[in-house]
Amino acid sequence: MDDFLYYLVIERGLSENTLASYHNDLEQYLNYLRERKIDSFREVNRGVIIAYLVKLQQEGRSPATLCQHLAALKSFHHFLLREKILDEDPTAAMESPRPVKRLPRVLSVEEIERLLEQPDLSDPAGQRDRAILELLYAAGLRVSELVSLNVGQVDLDGEYVRCLGKGNKERIVPIGSLACHYIGVYLHNGREKLIKRPGEKALFLNQQGMRLTRQGCWKIIKNYARLANLSQDITPHTLRHSFATHLLENGADLRSVQELLGHADIATTQIYTHLTRKKVREVYDRTHPRA
What we know:
- Helix 6 runs antiparallel to helix 8.
- This protein folds into two domains: 2-82, Orthogonal Bundle (DNA polymerase, domain 1); 109-285, hpI Integrase, Chain A (Orthogonal Bundle).
- The chain is mainly α.
- The chain has 13 helices and three strands; from the N terminus they run H-H-H-H-H-H-H-E-E-E-H-H-H-H-H-H.
C-alpha cells in the first residue's frame, strides 16, 4: 500500500487530503480481507469486492461513500495489475453506484454580512478571524488552501492571493478591497501579537503562534455561525459555495467561476447553476402575476 500511495503522489499528483482518504479506505478494505482469512490479492475476485461493498452499505454508508471506496479499490487493483502482482483486475467493468447529488448549503448575502460582523476586532484572534472569514468569502478558497497560505502569497496592493489547489496547481485569485483591508489590519496588528517565532511564514496563526489547522478553522467558523444564529451545518466550504453562487447570480460567467474556484472540470462548477436556476424560479413565482 505504501508503494501505491507513493505512486499516487509522484504520478498522479494527488493532494494530502485525497491521499489520507485513500489510505483510510484501503486500511478498512485490508482489515476486511484479513477478517475473511484472505492472504493474497490473487484470492480476491469480483464476489469479494461486491461482498465488501454490501457490508459497507449494511453499515449505513451513503452512496457517495460507496463510490469513494470503490474508486479507491479500482485504482489500487489497477496498480496491482500494472505492477504484475495480479494477472487480472477483479474491479474491471464494475460500475460505481450513482451518488445522490445534494445541492450545497448557501448563505444569503444578509447571512454572510451577519457572519462577517461577529469577530471582535479589538482582539488579535478576532482580527485574524475577520480576515479568515473575509478571505474565504472574497476568494472562494478551500479550507486547505486557506491554512496553507504564507504571508508572501497575499498581495494587498495588487489585491490578489496566490494559492495551491488540488494536485499542487497554483492559481491567482483576485480579492476585494474590504478583504484586503481586514487582512491588512490582521497583518499589522493581530498577527504581530500572535506570532511566537521570528521568521514564521504562515499567514494565519493559532494561539500557540503556529500555523492554523483545518480543524481549527472549522471550529472558528462553527463558533461564529452559532453567534450569528445560523444553522449548525455551516462550514468553511459553505463560504466557498456562497462565493460561487453569488457571483453567478450577479452575472458572472461559468468559465470565470470555474477558474476562480480551481475546478479542473467545468461539470463540477455546473452544480451552482442549479442553485441560481432555483433562485430564478423563486423570483418568478413571487413576482409574476400569473405564476
